[in-house]
Amino acid sequence: LRPLVENQKPTGFISEIQNLVPSCGKCNQSKGNRHWAKWILSNAKLSPKTRNSNHLELRMTRLEEYELWRKPTQLDFESIIGKEKWEQHWENWDTVISTMKHAQNLATEIKLAISNSHYSK
């Protein structure tokens, strides 16, 4: 129901019964990291609104009732592990992402150079 990640950062919500509802893989992928209500009413490719699904208001009411059933767990990871470790984790994350982008750019250059060399003969 609630996204686990927004803007590439964890929201603190976890995968547990209070935060899960059955859905097909295509709908789950279409929903992405949006809140369920925003997704249902969005113009996303496979959202219920886009697919002209019946009884949207009833479906939303049922999901709202489900949300009230039990409060979801939302963890504050930084307070659990400490500010210093949390910041180090995100610095490491930035380094990994940057390195992967650099590696991909380099691989693309290598592929292009090999392709040009091979086809120029």
Give short descriptive properties of this protein.
single chain, 2 strands, mainly alpha, 5 helices, 121 residues, two-stranded antiparallel sheet
Terminal Cα span: 57 Å
Major sheet characteristics:
2 strands, antiparallel
Count of DSSP strands: 2
Number of helices: 5
Helical/strand content category: mainly alpha
What percentage of residues falls in helices of 4 or more residues?
A: 55-70%
Q: How much of the residues is beta strand, in percent? A: under 5%
Spell the H/E element sequence. Answer: EEHHHHH
Look at the structure and give the mean pLDDT.
92
Rg over CA atoms: 21 Å
Low-confidence stretches: none
Notes on the structure:
Strand 1 and strand 2 (9-10) form a beta hairpin. With 121 residues, the protein is mainly alpha-helical. The protein has a two-stranded antiparallel sheet. The N and C termini lie far apart (57 Å). The chain contains five helices and two strands, in the order E-E-H-H-H-H-H. The mean pLDDT is 92.
